[in-house]
Amino acid sequence: MTLVAPPTLLPVGAGGWPCDISYDLDETLQQGVDAVMMLRLQAERMNDAFFPSTREYSRKWGFDDARLRALGEQPGAATVIMHPGPMNRGLEISSAAADSERSTVLAQVRNGVSVRMAALYLLLAGDSHQQSTPIEQKGAVL
Question: Which of 14, 16, 58, 78 could join 62 in a cystine, given CB atoms 3.0 to 4.6 angstroms apart?
Answer without folding.
Answer: 58
